[in-house]
Each structure stands twice: as structure tokens, then as C-alpha cells.
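Blinded run. Sample ID left blank on purpose so nobody reads anything into the name before looking at the predicted structure. Input follows.
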Amino acid sequence: MLTVTALAACGTTSGQPTSAETTRTDPPTTAEATSSSAAPAAPVQVPIPDDFTIAEGASGYLTRSGFAAGTIYGGCRPEVSFTNPAYRPSSWKPQVFDTKRGSFWSPPTSQPIPTGEQLIDQGCILAGAADTATLVVAASTKVPASGLSGEVRRVHLFAYPVGNSDPAAHVQFDVIPKNDSVQLYGTASGVITQPTYGDSVIRAVTDLKPLWPIAGNVRCTTSDAVFTDSGIRDAHSGTVLFVPTIHVLGGCSGTTESPTGQLMFFTSREPKVGNPTAAAFDVLAKREFNLGVFGIGSDDNITGIPIIDGKVKFGGRDDGVSIYDLRSQKPSFTISQQEVNSARIKGVAFFGDYLYIVNDSDKGTTYSVTTMSDRKQVATSWSSRPVLQVSGWTMIGDAASCGRSGQPECTRTMVRNVNGAFPGPWY
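Blinded prediction complete.
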């Protein structure tokens, strides 16, 4: 099984950097790569806390617990349980990067649960748009059976606008007693609660009032779309965006999104033959495309890939690497499998016009930077590199803090964009 994840490897090499390796604060042209330039004022940087977990319980970046409302968050499960709680008051610490204030924020650890109810579990999900980011904290409780009255299982929802210590809204609802858990999904318009048994409901992020009915099970969501058993619907209105006609829609295998794109990955099956095909739905363009052209099969793990400036990186078993532009709907850069083999490439990441390449050489692992526009190498190492886009900020990975290749621990700093763009350093 192939795993396509966000490459977060950051490398160091021995010796002093050459002039081509000098840290830059603006994207250099190839002609400028060997010349020095004066650096502008240092951009605003915010270290990511050591205890911040970008995708707790998930396989990579930008999953159901990782990216929403134009920012990153983590630290709690997107569900509450009645039988297998994960909540521990001493360790429960959701964290959201507040893009307006440039700091990490956490809601109160304890929620105002009414007297007579026993707290079982707490979870959370981030919902809303970039300017309405709201962390919805869910708490599962029970009222013990008494006399002729049976046990009551209940869920409380508290909507905390990011940066506020008091909830802006609170609702509670009872679930069928046989329910083991309630799943949480976030969209730009609201939060979805899906019990094991019973109806799913999407509630407005502002006041937690119901918006529109949901038929069938929710498989996954992005900010603007909801993937259900019956197809893909607009998260704001419930309007059907996509229903397969030639193929039978399989389960949603994951989502990925950034401020410049939203993708849902799923398996499509031919009704008669039954051959599974890996597919993706571009939410913003409202179109489906077959991932088989990138060498990606139905059993490949394609969750967690980042969308950067409207582009994504795909790589198959024996089909090289492609940087696919969601706007033009065409590959904007390709590395053939022959090139991958001859250069012994073991990892590729990109940002802007730059490719960050990891090679496996006879002297060990090497790291280099190449421009995609002219395929010219501009550096033979990097001390840090941009990793991820959020609203108004860019996440960078620092070589000194990197652990294993592809691990979120490599990312440690948020850099405020200047004039809407990443100010550097690029490597």
C-alpha cells in the first residue's frame, strides 16, 4: 500500500552553506541564486507549542482534526463516547491558531454541566469560516436511572468563537440510549452531530440552531461540502453537488483542504464489473477526476496531502510524481519514474516555484532545492522550508526540529504573510 503524505523532511548537511544556499527572504530568480541581497525586516513568527498535535488520531495533515476555518487546530477527538471515553481533565487541551491575534488559544477545560448529570466524555470540532472560526466543544453526559425512569444519555454543545473564554451558544439533546458515541464534523456553515443511531443534524456555527436535514450517513466533510451515502452536498444549503451516474460511489477515504482548494477522496466502482477506482472531487470546481492517471490505485492511502496555492502533489507506484493544478485541471510539473529511479529520489515536496527534493545517495541522504519553472537547482540544502498555508499565515519546518520524514513534528513555526504572500525564508 502506497502512502502519499505531506513531506516534512528537513535536512542538514555538513560544512558551511555555499552562496546558492544562503537563506533568502524573497523568492530568488535563477540568475540571482549566486548573488547576495539585503534582507528586509524579519517577518512575524509564532512558534508552535511543543504540545500541539495538528492531527490527533488521524493519518496526516488536513484531516477531520487538523484544518478548518482557515487555520490549524488539534488536541481533542472529533467525537464523544458514552462507553469508551478518552477525556482526561489533566491532559485535555484543544488548541487553535488564532490567525487574527497570531497566537494559540484554548477553550476552558471544564464545561458548565447541569447538576445531576454525570460527565462522560468531551470532544471538539472547529467550524466556521476564517472570520467566524468557532470551536464547538461537545460533552456527553448521562442521568442515572431512577425509580421507573431509565438512564438518559445526553450531549451538550458549546460554541466558542476563537479567542473567547465564554461560549456564544449552548444546546443540549438526548440520544437513543443504545448509542455508543456521537461523531462531530465541521463545515464553514456549521457543525454536524451524527449519533450511532438516529438522525444526523447540521447546526449553525453562530447559534447552534438546525440548518437543513441530512439524509444518510455522513462520511466526511470539507468547509463547503458534505459527503453522504447519497452523494456530495453543499454544506451551506444542502443542494446536491455530485451524484455518480456511471459508477457506484464508495466510501470517502479522506479529505484535504487549504484556503486555495478542497478535495474529497473516494472509491468509485463500476456496477457490473465491480472494479474499484480511486477518484477525487474538487469541491470548488465541482468536478470529479480519476486518480488512476496519476498511478494512484483504490488501495492507496491518499489522505493528508496538502493543497498549496491551488496545487497538489500526486505520486503513484510506478508513475513518477505530478504537481497537479486544480485551476487549470492539468499537471503543472512532472517527474518521470525514470528520473525518480536514476536520481534515487525518496521524497519530493513543493511550495511556490520550488521543489524540495530528498535523494538517497551513496554518501547518505541529501537535500536540494530546484525551481519548477526552469528545473534548475538553486540550493544543495535547506535550513527551513514552507510547509503549509492557512489564512494569512504560512507554516514552516525547521531543520533543527525535524524528526522522521513526513511527520508533523517537523513543523514548528507560523510566519505571517506579507502582502498576501509568504515572505520567506524559502530555504
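Unblinding after everyone has recorded impressions. The CA atoms of residues 279 and 291 lie 5 Å apart.
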